[in-house]
Amino acid sequence: MSVRAPRFLPAVLLGVLLALGTSLGAAVGPAAAQPVVARSVTSQSVTAFAQEQTAPGVDLPQAPTEADKENAKSKIVVGVVAVLLLGAVVWGNRIRAKRKKK
Fold first, then answer.
1. Helices (H), the chain
2. CA distance 20 to 74
3. Cα Rg for the chain, rounded, in angstroms?
4. Could you give the CA distance from residue 56 to residue 97 in angstroms, rounded to a whole number?
5. Cα 79 to Cα 16, 23, 35, 67, 93, distances in angstroms
6. Residues near 88 by beta carbon (within 8 Å), at least 6 away in sequence
7. Contacts by residues 67-76 (CB-CB < 8 Å, ≥ 24 positions apart)
8. CB-side exposure of 23: number of CA atoms within 13 Å?
9. Rounded distance, CA 47 to CA 53, Å?
10. What is the pLDDT of residues 20-59, one digit of tens each?
11. Average pLDDT, rounded, for the chain
């Protein structure tokens, strides 16, 4: 019975990766379908923009955008998958070492 566990593990990991991949694809889809709103540019907005760019002062951090949030979420998912794969490798090496001793 213990022989089937290592053969079954890659199939389980592949299933988890596919499930995570489809959930990320579904989350990105609606964000890409949002319409783009065009704004007219006036001379006041151009001068205000020029003044903001050249004015010295404190550089305040901007609020995270949806793209930043999605990027952070995907980094977390990749990190979790990497930890799971590392755990699978370590677990497999332990099993192999135990079989060599017998």
1. 4-32, 43-54, 66-101
2. 10
3. 25
4. 63
5. 14, 16, 32, 18, 21
6. 9, 13
7. 70/27, 70/28, 70/31, 73/24, 73/27, 74/24
8. 9
9. 10
10. 776 655 555 555 556 656 666 565 655 555 555 555 677 7
11. 75
Here the tokens at position 34 are 């949002």
Torsion from C-alpha of 49, 51, 52, 55, nearest 10 degrees: 160
- Under 8 Å between Cβ of 31 and 66: yes
What number of residues does the chain have? 102
Prediction pTM value: 0.41
Residue keyed to tokens 């089937």: 4
pLDDT average, residue stretch 70-93: 96
Are the C-beta atoms of 29 and 82 separated by less than 8 Å?
no
52 residue type, one letter: E
Tokens of 51: 């003044």
24 vs 26: CA distance, rounded Å: 5
